[in-house]
């Protein structure tokens, strides 16, 4: 028997030994393989590369910065109020019992002083005028007759042809006839005035703001037919509290902003001597220039210009409002953004006053400030 030959007896043992031998051979081959170098953190080159990437972090965004500036800003007092007519004139009928024949003016029309706005039917007034003229002529004739009798009585007074009583009667009749003539002339003048009042005329230049006259209507004396804004002038009536009243002076400049957004210059004309019993506010009357957008009864805001004071300001784009508070992002020497809460004040154009929270020598983000967060690394450009 060959010494290297091993015989295994027994059923089923040949296959088991074969698999065992193959497993031992595979393990031996794996053990003989050369060990691959570890690519982990122990490699000095890898460690150096990681540190280099951390030191060259990329900026999150590009921004512009600006330092706050000291500017002169006007001291302002804000108030609310309404636009009202400077003066309104009521145009009414001066005759009664006459029918309106024509109405030539409408709401919104600009009229001149003396311009005819409406007319009444003149037939009745004309008849009354003719009657008055006839009564005047009759009284004049009676006076001339009485005067002639009185003159004859005077001429024969010394002859004794007439008694003193008769002479006195002639002289008295002359005076009575003259008084009757004057009364007739006055009555005729009244009918002429009544005839003239059949034309309703504008008492001043202005704009018609209301009209109640209708053709065919019979109105009474004094009944309002039109209402007009005298000279087309409007004013702003602002409301201020008693505590603010001491800062308002006559002739002071006011910037009034209409509901349309238009800003108009104005001046304080008068200050009410009493306060409103309900609001306890005091009305300030401000004259406004003529403007097509002025409408009586509309709301308007006003700003009283009280003077000027120096203030620390930044561009409005630098202010970021979050959660109801105002912030700026201060950019340090390391180009990192630091969120800073600030207190804002007045705003003039594109500049906003800062009352607290920022130093004059600190730089704040302007363009792109609304996209920054605390600690962001940024790139600053001019």
Provide structural commentary.
The chain is of the alpha+beta class. The protein folds into four domains: 61-73 and 310-380, conserved putative lor/sdh protein from methanococcus maripaludis s2 fold (Beta Barrel), CATH 2.40.420.20; 77-86 and 231-309, Elongation Factor Tu (Ef-tu), domain 3; 90-120 and 200-230, OB fold (Dihydrolipoamide Acetyltransferase, E2P); 122-197, Helix Hairpins (Orthogonal Bundle). The chain is built from five helices and 22 strands. The strands form five sheets. The chain has a six-stranded antiparallel β-barrel with strand order 3-12-15-14-13-16. Helix 3 (123-155) packs antiparallel against helix 4 (164-196). The longest helix has 33 residues, at 123-155. Residues 1-18 and 34-55 have low confidence and may be disordered.
Helix segment tally: 5
List the strand order in the largest sheet: 3-12-15-14-13-16
* Sheet having the most strands: 6 strands, antiparallel, barrel
Q: Globular, elongated, flat, extended or rod-shaped: what is the shape?
A: rod-shaped
Helical percent range? 25-40%
Overall domain count: 4
CATH topology of the largest domain: Elongation Factor Tu (Ef-tu), domain 3
The low-confidence parts are 1-18, 34-55
CATH architecture of the largest domain: Beta Barrel
Overall mean pLDDT stands at 84
Strand content: 35-45%
Just give the CATH class of the largest domain. Answer: Mainly Beta
How far is it from the N-terminal to the C-terminal residue, by CA?
Answer: 99 Å
- Give the strand tally: 22
User: What string, H for helix and E for strand, traces the elements in order?
Assistant: HHEEEEEEEHHEEEEEHEEEEEEEEEE
């Amino acid at each position: 028997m060959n010494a290297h030959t091993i015989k295994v007896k027994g059923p089923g043992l040949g296959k088991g030994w074969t698999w065992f031998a193959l497993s031992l051979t595979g393990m031996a081959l794996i053990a003989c393989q050369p060990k691959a170098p570890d690519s982990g953190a122990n490699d000095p080159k890898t460690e150096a590369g990681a540190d280099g990437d951390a030191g060259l972090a990329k900026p999150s965004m590009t921004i512009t910065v600006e330092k706050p500036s000291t500017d002169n800003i006007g001291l302002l007092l804000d108030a609310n109020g309404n636009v009202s007519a400077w003066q309104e004139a009521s145009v009414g009928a001066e005759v009664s019992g006459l029918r309106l024949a024509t109405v030539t003016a409408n709401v919104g029309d600009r009229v001149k002083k003396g311009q005819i706005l409406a007319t009444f039917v003149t037939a009745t007034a004309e008849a009354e005028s003719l009657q008055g003229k006839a009564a005047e002529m009759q009284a004049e004739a009676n006076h001339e007759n009485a005067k002639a009798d009185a003159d004859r009585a005077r001429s024969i007074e010394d002859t004794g042809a007439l008694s003193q009583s008769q002479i006195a009667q002639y002289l008295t009749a002359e005076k009575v006839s003259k008084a009757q003539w004057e009364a007739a002339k006055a009555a005729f003048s009244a009918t002429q005035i009544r005839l003239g009042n059949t034309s309703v005329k504008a008492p001043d230049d202005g704009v018609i703001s209301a009209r109640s006259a209708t053709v065919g209507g019979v109105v009474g004396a004094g009944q309002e037919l039109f209402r007009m804004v005298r000279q087309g002038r409007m004013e702003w009536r602002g409301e201020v509290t008693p505590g603010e009243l001491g800062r308002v002076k006559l002739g002071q400049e006011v910037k009034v902003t209409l509901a349309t957004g238009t800003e108009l210059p104005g001046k304080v004309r008068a200050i009410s001597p009493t306060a409103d019993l309900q609001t306890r506010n005091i009305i300030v009357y401000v004259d406004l220039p003529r403007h097509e957008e002025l409408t009586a009864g509309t709301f308007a805001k006003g700003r009283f210009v009280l003077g000027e004071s120096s203030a620390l300001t930044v561009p409005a784009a630098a202010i970021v409002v979050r959660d109801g508070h105002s912030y700026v992002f201060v950019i340090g020497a390391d180009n990192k953004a630091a969120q800073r809460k600030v207190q804002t004040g007045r705003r003039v154009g594109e500049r906003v006053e800062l009352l607290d929270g920022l130093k004059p020598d600190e730089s704040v983000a302007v363009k792109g400030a609304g996209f920054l967060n605390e600690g962001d690394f940024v790139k600053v450009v001019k």
